[in-house]
C-alpha cells in the first residue's frame, strides 16, 4: 500500500510543479502576433540579434503580448497604413520584469561587450545606467509600450529611419538633425500615425511608443512569454 501511494504521488507532485512554473497570461492581455493581420514580427529579445547578443530571460517563444487597449489601437493604425501598401514590423511589446533584470545584470558585467560594434559603438558600457539606456523598470512591462517601424508590405523592406532599432546613440533621437530628408520624413510618418491612434513617443528612441491612456500605469508584470 505504501508503494502504491508513492506511485500516485509522483505524477501529482509533477503536476503541481508544472502549474507553479507556467504562469498564465492575464486576460487583460492579447497575443498581438495573431490579433493583427499582416503584422510582421521580429522579436529581437527571443534570439541573438540584440544588444546583449543572446536570448533574454522571459522570452521563451516568439510571441507578442500587449494590453487589449494597446493592441486595438495598433490594429487601427495598421489598418490605415495598409491602404498605402504599408504595415508595421514590431520588435518588442510586453516585456517581463525578469528581462529588465537580465538587462541590468548584463550592464554590470563590463567585460561582456559581444554586440557593442553594432548597437553601442560610441558608448562606454560603464555609462549605460547614467545615460538612461538601462534602467530598473521599463514601460514595456506595463503592457502598453511597443517598439516598431514601418515596412513595405509587398517587399517587407523597412523604411529607412536613419538608425537601426535599439541603437544606443544620439542618431536614434527623434530630432537628430544629421540624417537625410527622407529619413526624417519616415520618422515623422511613423510618429504621426502612432500619435493619431493614441500613442506617445519619447525623444530618445524613434521606435518607442506608449499608449497615452495605458490601463496599467504604475504596474509592472512578470509573466514569461510562453
Helix and strand content put the structural class at alpha+beta
Computed Rg:
20 Å
Shape: globular
The proportion of residues forming helix, as a percent range, comes to: 25-40%
Strand content: 15-25%
Mean pLDDT: 92
- Given as residue ranges, the uncertain stretches (5+ residues, pLDDT < 50) are 1-21
* Number of strand elements: 7
| H/E element sequence | HEHEEHEHHEHEE
Please list the strands of the largest sheet in the order they lie side by side. 2-4-5-7-6
What is the CA-CA span between the terminal residues?
39 Å
- So how many helices? 6
Major beta-sheet overview? 5 strands, mixed
What oligomeric assembly is this protein in? single chain
Describe the structure.
The protein is built from six helices and seven strands, in the order H-E-H-E-E-H-E-H-H-E-H-E-E. Mean pLDDT is 92; it is low at 1-21. The protein has helices at residues 2-21, 32-35, 68-82, 97-108, 116-119, 181-196, and strands at residues 29-31, 40-41, 65-67, 86-92, 145-152, 199-202, 205-211. The strands form two sheets. The chain has a five-stranded mixed beta sheet with strand order 2-4-5-7-6, covered by helices on one side. Strands 1-3 form a two-stranded antiparallel ribbon. A hairpin with a 2-residue loop joins strand 6 (199-202) and strand 7. It is an alpha+beta fold and 226 residues long.
Task: For the structure shown, list the relevant keywords.
globular, disordered N terminus, 226 residues, two-stranded antiparallel sheet, alpha+beta, 5-stranded mixed beta sheet, single chain, 6 helices
Amino acid at each position: 500500500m505504501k508503494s502504491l501511494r508513492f506511485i500516485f504521488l509522483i505524477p501529482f507532485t509533477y503536476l503541481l510543479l508544472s502549474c507553479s512554473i507556467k504562469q498564465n497570461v492575464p486576460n487583460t492581455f492579447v497575443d498581438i502576433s495573431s490579433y493583427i493581420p499582416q503584422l510582421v514580427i521580429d522579436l529581437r529579445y527571443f534570439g541573438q540579434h540584440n544588444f546583449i547578443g543572446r536570448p533574454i530571460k522571459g522570452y521563451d517563444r516568439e510571441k507578442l503580448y500587449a494590453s487589449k487597449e494597446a493592441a486595438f489601437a495598433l490594429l487601427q493604425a495598421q489598418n490605415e497604413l495598409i491602404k498605402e501598401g504599408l504595415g508595421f514590423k514590431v520588435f518588442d511589446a510586453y516585456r517581463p520584469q525578469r528581462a529588465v533584470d537580465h538587462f541590468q545584470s548584463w550592464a554590470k558585467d563590463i567585460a561582456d561587450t559581444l554586440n557593442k560594434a553594432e548597437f553601442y559603438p560610441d558608448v562606454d558600457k560603464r555609462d549605460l545606467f547614467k545615460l538612461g539606456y538601462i534602467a530598473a523598470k521599463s514601460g514595456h512591462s506595463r503592457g502598453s509600450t511597443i517598439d516598431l517601424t514601418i515596412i513595405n508590405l509587398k517587399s517587407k523592406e523597412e523604411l529607412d529611419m536613419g538608425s537601426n532599432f535599439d541603437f544606443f546613440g544620439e542618431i536614434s533621437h527623434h530630432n537628430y538633425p544629421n540624417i537625410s530628408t527622407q529619413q526624417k520624413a519616415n520618422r515623422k510618418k511613423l510618429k504621426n500615425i502612432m500619435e493619431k491612434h493614441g500613442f506617445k513617443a519619447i525623444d530618445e528612441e524613434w521606435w518607442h511608443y506608449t499608449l497615452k491612456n495605458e490601463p496599467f500605469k504604475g504596474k509592472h508584470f512578470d509573466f514569461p512569454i510562453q
